[in-house]
Design a protein that fits this description.
Chain A is mostly helical. Chain A has 6 helices and 3 strands. The N terminus of chain A is likely disordered. The structure holds a DNA duplex.
Chain lengths: 120, 120
DNA sequence: CATTCATATGATAACATATTCATACGTATT
DNA sequence: AATACGTATGAATATGTTATCATATGAATG
């Protein structure tokens, strides 16, 4: 008598993986963090701040965008704790909040490079 | 005679930062890569694959979503070289393409933790 | 205290994205 | 070759996101 193995019994894998999966909230927070890196304008802002702190209107000029757009994006970056700011008179200077930003971007960069090399 | 400094002369900063900014294409590619991490469903899939390779329908069952939705997202992950797959009969198994994925996610995780601790 | 400059914010419109449904494709089995 | 199963894909819808405009806020200055 032949014992038929069910084509798709995932029970064991599912049980194992399910037990190791982090809470939904953590996963959402992570996704939300990466979402912040996932926009060209914000990435440009971050790269700019790699070089130097900058005021809002300088960034706007650099990227050729409206000051308002930059302000909105800086708010997003600030909410994610990626940048911080300081006021000096009328001017507000933004700068990187910590070095994680560089590390995360650098990791992404490495991945791109590797991907690129594989495709040769 | 008092020399007035123009309130907002960014020329020097702009020149410096501009010269250091990577090409638009690189920045776009980077943003596009992080965009892939920036979705809860995809992040759940990645976390699942941390544990074990899985077939499409197992992931669908695990996440309680339609098989089609998972297929679509797996395609996005594959296009970004974050996952790869192998066929075994009718079944297609997906797995992490390399360890960058873990590293990138871990960096994001670290940032979240630090942010959380600062808020205490 | 009215004005100017720098920044922030709210509303809106244009665009992008994710999920589902329906269905097609590919593989194995009878 | 007909069927069943697992996966992929296209279209459509619902939902999010981004940039801009208009305008408000906040700080310095005459």
């Amino acid at each position: 008598m032949v014992v038929h193995i069910l084509a798709h019994n995932h029970e064991e894998i599912l049980k194992k993986v399910k037990s190791e999966l982090p809470e939904d909230e953590l996963i959402c927070d992570l996704a939300d963090l990466f979402k912040v890196f996932g926009d060209t304008t914000r990435m440009k802002i971050l790269y700019s701040l790699f070089e130097s702190e900058m005021c809002v209107c300088a960034i706007a000029e650099l990227l050729g965008m409206a000051q308002s757009a930059i302000s909105h994006q800086l708010k997003v970056l600030k909410n994610a704790n990626l940048v911080a700011n300081r006021r000096e008179g009328k001017t507000v200077y933004y700068f990187l909040a910590d070095n994680h930003v560089r590390t995360i971007v650098a990791q992404g960069f490495d991945h791109l490079i590797e991907k690129h090399q594989k495709q040769k």
